[in-house]
Specification:
The structure holds two protein chains of two kinds. Chain A is α/β, with parallel strands linked by helices. Chain A folds into two domains: about 1-115, no CATH class; about 150-420, Rossmann fold (3-Layer(aba) Sandwich), CATH 3.40.50. Chain A has 15 helices and nine strands. In chain A, the strands form two sheets. In chain A, strands 6-5-4-3-7-8-9 form a seven-stranded mixed β-sheet, with helices on both faces. Chain B folds into two domains: about 30-185, no CATH class; about 205-480, no CATH class. Helix content of chain B is about 70%, strand content about 0%. Chain B contains 20 helices and no strands. Classes of the chains: A alpha/beta, B mainly alpha. Chains A and B meet through helix 2, helix 3 and helix 8 of A and helix 1, helix 9 and helix 19 of B.
């Protein structure tokens, strides 16, 4: 027997080595099934063992790693706290290596969570996760009931007002409505039925109904108005590849600053992942959002993420992460105006058949994040009206891949930004 | 990405939640770690007489996993072609009777009509109506009939032999277009190559060689072609009107390398699988970019398709035996058909036309010069071929015009061009260009093949294999691994 094996190894070394490694990965995969790899099983059985191990390597999960059953989201706040208390400018100026390291660790964990979340959606989750989902649903339903009453009331209020802009100090019973002039409407789009339910949350989910605090309107409102390019000189654009496109082709690279990188998601912003910082046309350097915002002050911060998150269930989770990012930005830059840019829609071709990248999901997510605007220092702006057809699909001649604006169309975005800005008196 | 040359665009859309293992992709994990091992064990366990049956049944499973109900079409075509083959068969040494000639005409016209019908349906109705691999197995069937008539099959195949030949999974999706005689008779059709194996002998050596070629092909596909595919996607994303001229050239070269390694990689994997099943190695790519002329390039690129057109279209039309007028006509017919075979849109016709003209130009005008100064011939290939691939890649003629105006910026400037694009993308993609260009030089690849039992090469291939598996794993069912925005 041993003789035969030795012969095999000599006669067919590549084959035998591949078989040996395959065998080892299978053993590792089986060993890690209940532990590190628990999120990689599908309702159709295990993925090939090799695939499980490879994904584990990619997500930095070892078979013995203790992985939660996909309920990410919680626990991400806690580690943040230890590095937040740095109001002292001197301390903020010199980045503390210990803090940086802590941040890195948090990042790794959160990424794992994100991976878990991703998998959990695709596959049947563990019991714990199902429970969590059920709980969420319950909460959402309760909220929804409350919201229905509230919105009915708000509607009535609006009628009395005649749609006038509410002035500061005009106290109303909560929740307050942001005047239409302070925000873009969420641009609707036609639903082709391609969206996979796992990425969506129930239609009646209520997102932000805060009565006080950062995300609640309090009667102080500013209106969107046209500005010129000098407005952007103290602004920072944070985003994914679409923002990289704006940097490279929008004609704004000299007049403003960017912190962008391809494939950035709101979860990456939470994790404080590395991005590329390009200040006012100068050379780009690698920076993390928190470090940058601690050191450099911006008057306006534009956020544009959301396309990469479409494949991560679901809208509620996205909303929660987005909310935390804004809290964090507001904390680090309390004087800045924060713009939530609605996710740009995709082309009709994509929206019709892509289960992940479609406008049904995008509109739902825009509706969720739009509720975070308070009209005071957080604004929702939606440029889809400028680039979409009557069905809310990204116009075909403006996009090459159905997802991004072509270089020659980035100017439309730039123009939209110039038309929709708020000027806050110092 | 557009289809490969010889791989018409297929729509593999699967249901929203339905789980469907896609076996038809050689670089897919389900194929490598599930289908292939099970199949090989069965194939090696059964007696030799049952191997064709196992191959046929396994291939049907393979085909059905990707093409669904089109497997019934395949079954029907297999039976009809075997049956007609019986009618067309001419005993070696006998004179063909008119009835056999007529039967040959009937079945060839029928097969060609099926191909044209589905191509038109795919073009006019829905792309998903083109059955996976139809272009390839129809060509095998036509060659089978012609060979039955001329005696080149070398024997009168049984139903099981013919069925296994038409459907064999290593070749059904994207070729190579093997001849029946290459797989089922003792005497190789083409005796030029020295390293031919006798057909259908199983040995550990052949399995080892098979896996060696498979690993090479897998690496080319996953580690080079798929990476470069992202670059082409970036160019689509920016929009042709906004790329700088150096970027346009980088894109043309990148796309050419992507096509080459995608298709060569696939062919190597198919060849390797064939070896594992005991077949002779079928060579489909013979270092085309080392060719000294475009004519030579197409003897080396997708060689089984080129020789198919030569044997079943060009020579029956009269080849170059007539006057130069007839020869030019025959060449243009072959190249227009080649264009149409690759895709129904106008750009493919244009592509075939341009190649036909280039080949005529080489044959009658530039030939002598290219022979005398070989460097010119090589430059001809290296510069003109990527340009023809651009025609191949861009189905919209207006967009194609825009791309060419960026390649040759004589007619106005681009819109919102970022001068830094070339440096940026070369900075990201240079390792793939470097690896690709290195492998275009025959000596490197030949050295790898020659020294394939050397521990260093084995170690290298082991790394390539598992690195490919790693990338295939993390991108499986996870579209934003390749395309993250």
């Amino acid at each position: 027997m041993l003789q035969r094996l030795r012969e095999l190894l000599r006669e067919a070394p590549l084959l035998s080595l591949i078989l040996i490694i395959w065998f080892l990965t299978a053993v590792i995969a089986i060993a890690g099934r209940g532990h590190g790899y628990r999120n990689y099983s599908t309702k159709h059985g295990m993925l090939p063992g090799v695939s499980v191990v490879m994904r584990g390597i990619h997500d930095h999960v070892a078979p013995w790693t203790d992985v939660a059953g996909g309920t990410a989201g919680e626990g991400q706040d806690a580690p943040d706290e230890d590095e937040d208390e740095t109001p002292d400018p001197a301390a903020a100026d010199s980045p503390d290596p210990a803090n940086a390291e802590a941040g890195e660790q948090v990042g790794a964990e959160a990424r794992q969570d994100a991976a878990g979340r991703d998998e959990a959606g695709k596959e049947s989750g563990t019991a714990a996760q199902n429970d969590a989902a059920a709980e969420n649903d319950q909460a959402a339903r309760n909220d929804a009931a409350a919201e229905k009453e509230a919105s009915a009331q708000a509607e009535a209020d609006k009628k009395e007002d005649g749609g006038q802009q509410a002035d500061a100090g005009e106290e109303k019973t909560p929740p307050m409505q942001i005047p239409e002039t302070s925000c873009s409407k969420v641009v609707p789009a036609r639903d082709y039925g391609a969206a996979d339910d796992q990425y969506l949350s129930p239609d009646d989910t209520v997102y932000n109904d805060d009565k006080e605090g950062l995300f609640a309107p309090n009667g102080v409102y500013y209106s969107l108005q046209p500005v010129d390019d000098s407005y952007f000189s103290d602004a920072l654009f944070i985003g994914d590849s679409r923002t990289v496109g704006l940097l490279e082709y929008g004609g704004m690279e000299e007049s403003t600053s960017f912190l962008a990188r391809e494939s950035t998601s709101v979860y990456d912003l939470l994790d404080n992942s590395k991005m590329d910082y390009t200040p006012l046309g100068k050379k780009k350097t690698e920076k993390r959002m928190k470090d940058l915002l601690k050191k450099t002050t911006f008057k306006k911060i534009y956020l544009s993420v959301g396309i990469n998150e479409l494949g991560i269930p679901d809208t509620r989770d996205y909303y929660e992460a987005y909310r935390k990012v804004i809290e964090k930005i507001n904390e680090l830059q309390p004087g800045a105006v924060i713009y939530i840019q609605g996710i740009m829609h995709v082309s009709e071709e994509k929206s019709r058949k892509d289960h992940v990248f479609n406008n049904t999901a995008i509109v739902q997510r825009n509706q969720a994040i739009a509720t975070l605007a308070n009209g005071r220092n957080i604004f929702y702006i939606d440029m889809n009206g400028e680039v979409c057809d009557k069905d809310g699909n990204l116009k075909k001649d403006l996009t090459g891949d159905g997802i991004h604006l072509k270089a020659s169309a980035c100017d439309l975005w730039h123009k939209f930004l110039k038309e929709h800005a708020v000027v806050v008196p110092d | 990405m557009k289809g490969l040359p010889g791989a018409p665009v297929h729509d593999f859309a699967v249901g929203k939640t339905r789980y469907c293992p896609m076996l038809v992709n050689f670089s897919g994990l389900e194929f490598i770690f599930r289908f292939l091992p099970v199949f090989l064990i069965l194939y090696y366990l059964v007696p030799e007489t049952l191997q064709d049956l196992v191959l046929f049944v396994g291939s049907l499973v393979f085909y059905a996993s990707g093409a669904r109900w089109f497997v019934l079409l395949l079954l029907g075509l297999v039976f009809v072609n075997w049956f007609f083959g019986e009618l067309v068969w001419v005993m070696p040494g006998k004179q063909a009777r008119p009835i056999e000639r007529r039967m040959l005409a009937v079945i060839v016209v029928f097969d060609a009509a099926v191909l044209v019908l589905f191509k038109v349906l795919a073009l006019k109705v829905r792309a998903s109506l083109l059955p996976l691999g139809l272009s390839f197995y129809i060509f095998k069937m036509i060659s089978y009939q012609a060979d039955m008539f001329s005696g080149r099959t070398g024997c009168r195949p049984s139903l099981m032999q013919a069925a296994a030949y038409f459907t064999m999974f290593p070749q059904i999706a994207q070729g190579p277009i093997m001849r029946f005689s290459q797989g089922w008779i003792e005497r190789p059709l083409n005796v030029r190559r020295r390293t031919e194996y006798a057909p259908r002998t199983l040995s550990l050596q052949k399995v080892e060689d098979g896996i060696t070629f498979f690993a090479m092909g897998l690496g080319m596909k996953v580690l080079i072609a798929d990476r470069l595919g992202i670059l082409w996607n970036e160019i689509l994303k920016i929009g042709f009107e906004s790329i700088s001229t150096p970027m346009a050239w980088l894109g043309a070269v990148g796309y050419s390398l992507q096509l080459y390694f995608d298709f060569w990689g696939y062919s190597l994997m198919a060849g390797g699988l064939g070896l594992m099943l005991g077949f002779r190695y079928v060579q489909n790519f013979i270092h085309p970019y080392a060719a000294g002329s475009i004519t030579d390039f197409y003897r080396r690129w997708h060689a089984t398709l080129g020789s198919w057109f030569r044997d079943y279209v060009y020579i029956p039309l009269g080849g170059s035996r007539g006057g130069s007028g007839e020869t030019i006509r025959n060449l243009m017919v072959v190249w227009l058909l080649t264009g149409f075979w690759h895709g129904g849109t106008l750009n493919f016709v244009l592509w075939g036309l341009v190649l036909g003209l280039l080949i005529v130009w080489e044959k009658y005008v530039a030939g002598g010069l290219l022979d005398r100064i070989p460097v010119l011939g090589h430059l001809h290939v290296i510069i003109l071929i990527p340009l023809t691939w651009v025609i191949f890649a861009i189905t919209d003629l207006r967009e194609l015009g825009v791309y060419f105006s960026r390649l040759f910026p004589l007619f106005g400037a681009g819109v919102a061009v970022n001068r830094g694009d070339f440096a940026k993308y070369l900075g990201i993609y240079w390792p793939f260009f470097a690896a690709g260009i290195l492998l275009c030089v025959p000596v490197f690849y030949n050295l790898l093949v020659w020294k394939r039992r050397h521990p260093v090469v084995i170690g290298l291939l082991l790394v390539v294999f598992w690195a490919s598996i790693y990338f295939a794993s993390i991108s499986a069912g996870n579209p934003f691994m390749y395309f993250s925005f």
